Amino acid sequence: MVESMAGQTPITRLQTAELQQILEVTRKLAAPFDLRTMLTEVVDSARTVLQADRGSVFLYDPEAEELELTVATGLETIRLPADQGIVGQCVQTREIINVPDCYADPRFNQEFDRQSGYRTRCMLTLPLIDHDGSLVGVLQLLNKQDGVFDDEDEWVAAALAAQCAVALHRVQATERMIQTQKLDREISVAREIQMSGLPKQMPRVSDYDGAGIFRPTDQTGGDLFDFVRLDSGELFLLLGDATGHGIGPALSATQLRSMVRIALRLGADLDQVFTHANNQLVDDLPDDRFITAFMGLLNPATHMVRFHAGGQGPLLHYKAASDECVWHGASTFPMGALPQDKLEKAVRLDMAPGDLLGLISDGIYEYENEAGEQFGLEGVARVIREHRDKPMTEAVDALLHEVRAFGGTAPQTDDITIVLVRRQPA
Description:
426 residues, alpha+beta, Beta-Lactamase, Phosphatase 2c, domain 1, 2 domains, 6-stranded antiparallel β-sheet, 11 helices, 16 strands, elongated
């Protein structure tokens, strides 16, 4: 069974070049595609990464209980029941099926080979399951070069399939929305896709309570946040702010989140995640664009947070014992600004009982009222002290309410993102 996220797995042999290759696939899948182009990209990327000779994608139709072979190397589009053959079993079990000798497996339908004149030797079949647990299709890869698919191939394929499923879901959702709405509503579609990708709540972590919220200036924005609970029990925290507003920064933010998630799934540590994602953004972003980002790991066993803050600050550490707010600045350059081979040592802070970590974008600190005065550090500190004993969902809502009350009739001019994580009092 393939493990999830960043536990110790057979992928420990993964090399930097392979990780970079996976990140490149993730970057490409973040681009806007029509459905057929998207599926072709999925098949070609999977064949390249896993050194397979051929590949295909079956789209799942839950209403008809059928699979549609939409893109396949050397085959035309066909439909078949979703409970037959190897792909049908994959739909029913939602598990990876690795067949080293297809002609020795009674589930294999030899008719496809007879029609195409192709000889299928080995096969890897993977379910494509999106972020909300819905099955969107099945990916099949045929004939690994120089051998059969092994455990490491299964692990890499599972990570790739997860990203492909999310990208496929995004394309399908976009096409459905565009079909029912006028083209002048495409910005609203982009907002819905962006907002639906944000975590609804923080994963359950012993002794900790947390919450996050994102409110863009326009219909889409360049801020992002994420919570990822790792197999080790640690909680990965991400806050980012891409320069500018609108669809361009929103795509940059989506790209960063996707690269971070795939790197974590492949077992990269904190430094590797930051370095590889940064260097990929250096290649992808225009010279005048970058992303300020916080990436940190909270260990609930040691109550320590280790983090890199690429141009992101101020970062709030509220110390309950002294009722003191400590502010941390950026620890390195913004992401996408300069290539980095070796980072400075990660910053560390200890979370004592009742302590609170605040990851807050400058849309809060720099929120102005009618007189041009900013909400500032003092405003944030006051709200945190007043709500330090409340659930973090209430504290997040209170901070958003207070800053808007402070602004009065002045409009919001920057994206707002708030992430608060608190260790429960002793």
